[in-house]
Amino acid sequence: MTVSALVISIVFSIGSLSWGYAQAGLDPLARWLLIFGVAWLFSQWRRWYWFSSIGLIVIILIAALGTWMGLTPGWMFASGIFALMAWDLTDYRRRIRFAALDDDERGMERRHISRLTFLAFAGLSLSSVAMLVRLEFTLEWAILLVFVVLFGLTQLVAWLRR
């Protein structure tokens, strides 16, 4: 479950940032961000946990640059939220290996991901309010919100079935 949430967080982070830059007409940078996202996913597959810290720093800096340049703040903020989630989930995967045998790993994982999901919902709600105030709420943003809500509901249903 953590791995799927991690992959989705990286994809949403890179996708949000790339989309925000592509909307501003900065397609070459958007392509480089997509390549960086593929490298980040590859690093998770190879268990290079250190790469998530680099990913978080790069995404936050590029999102801050985009905000400073006047790009849509929701996309920049969403990329930061999902990058933070991916960084946290990478660290969680590294730490959970050292759990005691009698620990309830599934319960700990469920609680951890539910806290992160709440963080994502709260952050995206604030971003949505900011976009509504600036009259920049678009169909693409609504689609992202729908995907995040569907992912959250899928997690909830999976947890309730266990």
Order of helices and strands: HHHHHH
Count of separate DSSP helical elements:
6
Largest sheet: none
User: Could you report the average pLDDT, rounded to the nearest whole number?
Assistant: 83
Domain unit count: 1
Spatial gap, N to C terminus: 13 Å
Number of strands: 0
Using the alpha-carbon principal axes, give the shape: globular
Query: Percent helix among the residues?
Result: over 70%
Task: Give a verbal description of the structure.
With 162 residues, the chain is mainly alpha-helical. Helix content is 83%, strand content 0%. The protein is built from six helices and no strands. The model has no long low-confidence stretch (mean pLDDT 83).
Secondary structure topology:
Elements (H helix, E strand, L loop, with lengths): L1 H22 L3 H19 L5 H18 L4 H24 L8 H29 L5 H23 L1
Helix pairs in contact: 1-2, 1-3, 1-4, 3-4, 4-5, 5-6
Keywords:
globular, 6 helices, single chain, 162 residues, mainly alpha
Produce a short descriptive summary.
With 162 residues, the chain is mainly alpha-helical.
